[in-house]
Amino acid sequence: MKHVTLPVSPKTVHWGYFSKKVSPALTLRSGDRATIETLTHHANDDYERMIAGDAGAESVFQWTREHKAVARRGSGPVEGPFIRGAGEGIGVHLLTGPVAIEGAEPGDILEVRILDVRPRPSCSACHAGRCFGSNVAANWGFHYHDLIEEPKPREVITIFELDTSGEPYAKAVYNYVWAPQTDPDGIVHRTIDYPGVRVDHATIKKRENILARVKVPARLHFGTMGLAPSEADFVSSIPPSYTGGNIDDWRIGKGARMFYPVAVPGAYFSVGDPHAAQGDSELGGTAIETSLTGDFEFILHKNADLAGTSLEGLDHPMLESDQAWSFYGFTYPNYLAALGADAQTEIANHSSLDRAMRDAFRKLRRFLMTVHHLSEDEAISLLSVGADFGVTQVVDANWGVHGTIRKNIFRCD
């Protein structure tokens, strides 16, 4: 076993997509561990607090008329003319990786153990050592066309500070309504439609003393984590799918073990979209987006060894913790295969919790019948009385429902 560190830099991140074509930033063997830095793509909502003085963050977010450190920001084209910028905003998350796993082949299962998660402190002279994040009530939020106060519509950014001195929690610092921002290439962004645009704080009005008596318990986790799919060379980071991705479940934090089906040689694991806290549904559009560093262990389960184990036939992400197993249902289990050549844009027209619930039910039913050897009638009874289904997210186009079954149900005297 070896343990290596993967820091953030323009050479170790890819922005807005999973890809089987990107050269690995790191290659490991089964059993190896890695400390991986991740950055929030919302850091420029408050440059002073979340980027200034941080050499790694500054190198990734550097963008002037003469130089853009990470040009492709999405799974779209990188040659203009552009409406929003290279990649055209189809995919938004900053991902560190890929990490290639030696010997991984389609049909295998990659187990990723999250050993620890830590916030990335501010390096700003004014805020050194403190940790910050951004929550956005955005145009892709579930609420956006159901506002009751003026102005309508509006996008609102709330900056939080994370207190880690004891039991960690987040407290709001201020918020502001998004105002049109002009990027270094001269493109005006009237809405939040392209990742990494720096907000000029001279153009916005801060509202302080908000959420004054509220402390949000921290749930440090990674919103986007998974493997490269096989169906396309560049796949948007927004919709989750059968190899994981933007699942946005706060349970994918310290102590979690995630299992992913390998779709391409090497597996090509990437992680990002780090969160300080999130509720089930992520209703407004984002969590508290912050920068985190995680310690990971990688275990490769070869297809030839899966027969008779709980991983046999697994063709979707699964979470295991000390307390429970969780399964993730989506509008389409594999939207890339189901919707064809235009799947990455077409999926947003099909978002459905009904379909996601049915997918989660089917995955959990299969688990109970194949792993715990229940009959279908037994499984359905247990799903009704002992399983918990919840809305994972309604903001990632391929909407999600998670089904959880607790382990203590099976510990009978």
Automatic annotation (TrEMBL):
InterPro entries: FmdA_AmdA. Pfam families: FmdA_AmdA. One of its GO terms (molecular function) is hydrolase activity, acting on carbon-nitrogen (but not peptide) bonds, in linear amides. It comes from the Bacteria. This is Acetamidase. It comes from Bradyrhizobium hipponense.
